[in-house]
Amino acid sequence: MDAFSYARASDPDNAIQLVQRPGSYFIGGGTNLLDLAKAGVVHPLHIVDLNHIGLAGIDELPGGGLRVGAMARNSDVAAHPLVRERYPLLSQALLAGASPQLRNMATVGGNLLQRTRCPYFTDPGFEHCNKRAPASGCAAREGYSRVHAVLGASEACIAVNPSDMSVALAALDATVVTAGRRANRRIPIGDFHRLPGDTPQRDTALEPGELITAVELPPPRFQKHAIYLKVRDRASYAFALVSVAAALELDGRQVRATSIALGGVAHKPWRVPAAESTLIGAPLDEDRNARVAAAIMAGARPYKDNAFKVVLAQRAIVQALRRAGDMS
Ligand code: SF4
Question: Could you give the angle at the alpha carbon of 295 between the alpha carbons of 236 and 272, nearest 5°?
Answer without folding.
Answer: 70
